[in-house]
Amino acid sequence: MSGNIAPFAPGGSAGVDDDLCRRLVSEALSRGGHHAELFFEYRLTGSLTFEEGITRTATRGVAMGMGARVLWGDATGYAYTEDLTWESMRRAVQTASRIAQGNAGTSAVRIEPLVLPGRYELDVHSVEAPGVEKRQLLSRASECATRFDPRIVKVEVSFAEELREILVVTSEGQRAYDAQPLIRFGVKAIAEHHGRREVGRSGGGGRTTLGYFEARSPQWHAEQAAQQALTMLDARPAPAGQMEVVLAPGDSGVLLHEAVGHGLEADFNRKGTSNYSDRVGQLVASPLCTVVDDATLLQARGSLNVDDEGSEARLNVLIEDGRLCGYLHDRLSARHYGAALSGNGRRESYAHSPLPRMTNTVLLAGPHDPAAILASVKNGVYAKTFGGGQVDISNGDFVFSLTEAYLITDGRLGPPLKGVNLIGNGPETLRQVEMLGNDVSLSDGIWTCGKDGQSVPVGVGCPTVKLRQITVGGTEIG
Questions:
Q1: Within 13 Å and on the Cβ side, how many CA atoms surround 373?
Q2: 434, 247 in Cβ contact below 8 A?
Q3: How confident is the model over 395-447, as pLDDT tens digits?
Q4: In whole angstroms, what is the distance from residue 312 CA to residue 314 CA?
Q5: Is 122 in contact with 310 (CB distance < 8 Å)?
Q6: Which of 83, 253, 266, 393 could form a disulfide with 327 if both were Cys (CB 3.0 to 4.6 A apart)?
Q7: Are residues 272 and 208 in the same domain?
């Protein structure tokens, strides 16, 4: 990267060296506290939207600042500043330090750089590529979807990118630097026929370059979106009632993320508000199920080299053979449980304090042939693409809408269905897993997770899954 977009790299233009960090950490611990950290962030973002043959919007933005956190028991002091002058940063750390009381804490030891893995090392970042090159990608997708079928009446294409550079320095003497690229591409196609309109979508991306499109071209996404919209023109009303449901591999993992994953974040368990509180070691799912949160996947949307507390991100096994193994931790919850840091302390920006968050949450493969799973269903629903949903973390109850689903009759896919909702309980749904495919796949880089007003990029994944029974909300009684 060129120096002008790497201000916090060693020798970078921001001038944040070890001596300055030691002085700030000492100020942060001046009133006491067992831990202090400095979080520096530089974020360069860009976006394009394309509609009706023209570029509708084009944006470019830069944000930079520092957050300071002091921990004193279970209490947190946090402050931030956009002004990286010594006086402004000093005021921020002094503000954060006011949570602590008593004698001064331990001053920072010698600062040592943390050697990190390279899960998204790129020769050229998308933010450095010419804008005309990105616009051509959108134009190609728009033209392809428009020409796909006369019933496609409107096409919207979008591209978003960012380069997030972070530097975390802790009172334990760790210095962790990372540059995190991210792109996301999306196509929305609207089909209309005989007064009926339906929408189809396709998208993808990850912590990668524009080389992403060599495997999945803009035209490929355009055709997927257009075909989905056209398919849904023929969709019939969904049945309702208790039914067998087969989840498609990949994006269906969003159900796992929302209905199960949030309940395994340690802050909810520390507060006793999760359905999984005090259940480590217990059977909480079908013995077929092993669930991991894996930040190590190469160039995946949720992957990290280091979390936002300066801990190396890693693979964490949450549920193994149906038994709960543990939770996802930030520094506060790890101290509470006496557990090792799991590398899941994440924050939206320097203006936010970190929380335990997921990275790439995946239900691992099972022993079954996906074709055999489908053939085993006499009357059910095939859930291919998920839309929005609502989840109650305290008990795991959820409602998810499906944007693309099909009737299954005598082991064969039937007509598409509209208005399908899946209604259930996260832990109970995992107990209903009757067959698990050997075709596990990861979502193609589209998901963003919200929690306590903060949004972070995540990945989800799963194989083909057969649920013995779940409530399908539709318009006809099945």
A1: 26
A2: no
A3: 889 999 999 999 999 999 999 999 999 999 999 999 999 999 999 999 998 99
A4: 6
A5: no
A6: 266
A7: no
